[in-house]
Amino acid sequence: MAGEKYLVECIATFDPKGGIRPNRIKFEDEEGVHVIKVDKVIDQDFKNTFGTMNGNQNKAYTFNCQSIIEDILVTFKLQYDQQSCKWHMLKVG
């Protein structure tokens, strides 16, 4: 699982001002299905990127998160792509 990128399902909450907070993610890899509760969002970043084929700006939120998985504190990044409405887990360490 370390160092790979996964497309994940995410349960998130939104505040009245439009802020996003990921709460729980679910993904599958060669070891099976994993469900991870996001214990803490350390920080978040919002960027405009030029990732689309037609040159339009693509907006993405990146969340640096912490969770306790099997009694080990794990940090990882979640990214929400606003255009595609997809969540990715970018890094586990």
Structure description:
- With about 90 residues, the protein is an all-beta fold.
- About 0% of the residues lie in helices and about 70% in strands.
- The chain has strands at about 5-15, 20-30, 30-35, 40-50, 60-70, 70-80, 85-90.
- The protein has a 7-stranded antiparallel sheet, with no helix packed on it.
- The model has no long low-confidence stretch (mean pLDDT about 85).
User: Assembly state here?
Assistant: single chain
What is the β-strand count? Answer: 7
Low-confidence stretches: none
Q: Hey, roughly how much beta strand do the residues contain?
A: over 45%
What is the alpha-carbon Rg in Å? 14 Å
Question: Distance between termini?
Answer: 9 Å
The backbone outline, from C-alpha atoms, is globular
Mean pLDDT: 87
Domain module count? 1
Proportion of helical residues: under 10%
How many strands, what sense, and barrel or not for the largest sheet? 7 strands, antiparallel
Lateral arrangement of strands in the main beta sheet? 3-2-1-7-6-5-4
What letter string, H or E per element, gives the SSE order? Answer: EEEEEEE
Number of helices: 0
What class would the helix/strand composition place it in? mainly beta
